[in-house]
Specification:
The protein is mainly beta. Helices cover 12% and strands 40% of the residues. The protein contains four helices and 29 strands. A hairpin with a 6-residue loop joins strand 3 and strand 4 (71-76). Helix 1 (2-22) runs antiparallel to helix 2. The relative contact order is 0.13. WD repeats lie at residues 196-231.
């Protein structure tokens, strides 16, 4: 009953917004943002979409191509790589996303070394990169599923990241390793062109700014967070203010906010913090703490930000927590997985959310309440609308088809 009331209120609010749009009191872009925020707040396990589960190990990283968000790239701890096509070309509301390419045991390019990162090349979905439990950064041709370049940085790689915006840095990959150095690799030459020196312990996380492709943030096992300008030859630009005396609390994950003005990071103590880089009188910016925690025993996690919609998605033990960047408070918690969640990825084109972890499942989330209302389809009662598919995992079957909160 509470869920019904919540959905009724959201529909009423949208009707009011549409009336304001007709009267010229609201812009179309403002309405689009309000509707996108509503959809994010109403995210739940999708009952219309299912991803074919082909993973042979726990999933460590997810990435969506930056062109139209159609292809989902996943990396596994076992060394396997999978690409799902998320487009629905069946003509039915309910469909299953298929694996269109994979590199698993038996493939000529397969390596048993664990994978920590798999990322699409931001300017061309025909290329992607992988790295992990060895010192090799591999650049792949997605069409042929072959390695076109291998870069050996001589250190075990914890994480790597490419700039998502076109600039000189778009050809640079920041590689965080078990040493105190961060390597910048130029994919045009396949060589390491520079070392960023400033950390004293292993670097566990790194991320480029989504606005300024030359700004890079890195976090280490000591809890230090450094901001770099990759064009400058001198040291880092800023260091995050820390407690005195500083406590060793290593950084598990780091990312920029959608406007590039702040950095969100999760530490070993499960604390979630927001580092405002600019606009603060205090040198080095201001650090704020979120209302919740990101629990879990994994050393590294992958979180994501919803771009212009001011939400952040963080793996939290067996669930995905959604926080507001404005209030720093918990908005929603998606408790679906029966194993630790390692990674999540938000699709800004739809909007949809995908999460994966130790249970080897990739779970899609959508706001589907309006679909049931618009097409008068009640998926819990009208099982004969579309033939029910056989779902590989019983837990996924129960969570998708026996959702009591959907009425």
């Amino acid at each position: 009953m509470k869920m019904q009331r919540k959905r009724y209120d959201s529909v009423q609010n949208m009707v009011v917004c549409l009336e304001r749009l007709k009267m010229g009191r609201m812009s179309a872009s403002k309405l689009k943002k309000i509707d996108s925020n509503r959809r994010i707040c109403e995210l739940n396990v999708s009952r219309l979409m299912n991803l074919r589960q082909a993973q042979d190990g726990c999933v460590t990283y997810l990435d969506l191509d930056g062109y139209n968000g159609r292809y989902l790239l996943s990396a596994c701890h076992s060394g396997s790589i999978y690409i799902h096509d998320l487009a629905n070309d069946t003509g039915n509301l309910r469909f299953e996303s298929q694996v269109i390419a994979e590199c698993s045991p038996g493939h000529a390019e397969y390596s048993s070394a664990r994978l920590e990162t798999a990322q699409w090349y931001p300017l061309d979905p025909g290329l992607f990169t992988t790295s992990g439990g060895n010192s090799r950064l591999r650049i792949w041709d997605a069409n042929q599923m072959t390695v076109v370049e291998t870069v050996d940085v001589k250190e075990t790689i914890n994480r790597h990241h490419m700039s998502p915006v076109p600039s000189e840095a778009s050809c640079l990959i920041a590689v965080a390793t078990v040493s105190e150095f961060v390597y910048l690799v130029d994919i045009r030459t396949g060589n390491s062109v520079r070392e960023l020196r400033g950390h004293e312990l292993a670097v566990n996380a790194c991320a480029f700014s989504p606005i300024d492709g030359d700004l890079l943030v890195t976090g280490d096992l000591e809890g230090r967070l450094l901001l770099w300008d990759v064009r400058m030859s001198r040291g880092h630009l800023l260091e995050m203010p820390r407690e005195k005396p500083p406590k060793k609390d290593f950084v598990k994950s780091v990312c920029f906010s959608g406007d590039g003005q702040s950095v969100i990071f999760v530490s070993k103590s499960s604390k979630i913090r927001l580092w405002k880089l600019f606009g603060c009188k205090k040198h080095g910016g201001k650090v704020s703490e979120f209302s919740g925690q990101a629990r879990g025993k994994t050393i590294r996690i992958q979180m994501d930000v919803s771009g212009d919609f001011d939400f952040i998605f963080i793996p939290d033990n067996r669930s995905v927590a959604i926080y507001s960047l404005k209030t720093l408070k918990l908005v929603n918690s998606l408790d679906v997985h029966y194993g630790l969640v390692n990674c999540c990825r938000f699709n800004k084109f739809t909007p949809e959310l995908y999460s994966a972890g130790m249970d080897q499942n990739i779970v899609p989330y959508r706001a589907e309440g309006e679909i049931s209302r618009g097409f008068t389809v009640d998926l819990e009662r009208d099982g004969d609308v579309v033939e029910e598919r056989v779902v590989k995992n019983k837990f996924v079957h129960d969570s998708l088809w026996n959702d009591s909160d959907s009425d």
